[in-house]
Amino acid sequence: MSIHRPGLPEDLPPAQALWARWALLAAVEATTEAQGRRGGYRTGRWIDAEGLHWDDAGCTWWVMSRMGEDRFVLYGEDESSDVKWHQPPIDMLAGGPDWLPYEELHDRLAGNELGCVYWYDNGTWSRAPYPDSLQDDGLDCGMSDFTDRDKVLQELESRIGAGDGPGPAAVLADAEALRLQPRALLEQLRPVSADGDPLDPQAVAEALARAGLCR
User: What residues contact 4, with CB distance under 8 A and at least 6 apart?
Assistant: First the structure.
């Protein structure tokens, strides 16, 4: 799925699918050490009480949070975003519903950290209106690794493939259908990632449960 510049709400897959892809990638690389960290700067992909996170340690950071039944918010920034530099200023929260995490979003705005905000309700993504002069809001560079299902599968292939299981495509389909079986997944995970990181089964199982991807 390609993403326009600036992004359009219809560029994003259904929120449940986006959540499942992101959460699965975060889970298979989870470690007890990282999840037990309190405070300090963190990079990579992970899930916590706030939701899903992605931070590449320089160019992009994103958060996706559940805000109730079938409600989600996606916000963050990629260095490609022109939103916060645009003149006249763009109100990224214009038209936002009352259930958005406004305290957090206003804090990010005050720190000049926010690049765009999208929200999902009743099966539809929305965002604030943009002027025609805006070139990019960062959604493409920030989210394309999750919106493009083939890219997700390519990444999963570096972690899934041990044993005689059905493979990454079936695992991803089960995650998107919220019917993963943790034991079966753990049996297919490679003991060491392509980067040399050892598998941490307990952390993976905990992340899967927190994301709600299991039966």
Answer: 11, 140
* The pair of three-digit structure tokens given for residue 26, joined into one six-digit string: 């975060």
Residue 183 CB coordination number (10 Å): 10
Q: What token pair was written down for 111?
A: 């720190």
Rounded CA separation 13/172 (Å) = 15
E strands present in 67-185: 72-78, 116-121, 124-127
- Bond before 88 cis per omega within 30 degrees: yes
| CA-CA-CA-CA dihedral for 47, 117, 57, 34, to nearest 10 | -10
Torsion 73-76-80-83 (CA) sign? positive
Sign of the CA dihedral running 177, 178, 181, 185: positive
Query: How does pLDDT run across 28-47, given as a tens digit for each residue?
Result: 989 887 665 555 678 899 99
pTM across the whole model: 0.93
Q: How many CA atoms lie within 13 A of 207 on its CB side?
A: 31
Token duo for residue 122: 């009743």
User: Is the model more confident about 157 or about 126?
Assistant: 126
Q: What distance in Å separates the CA atoms of residue 76 and residue 213, rounded to the nearest whole number? A: 23
d(CA 159, CA 70) in angstroms, rounded, equals: 29
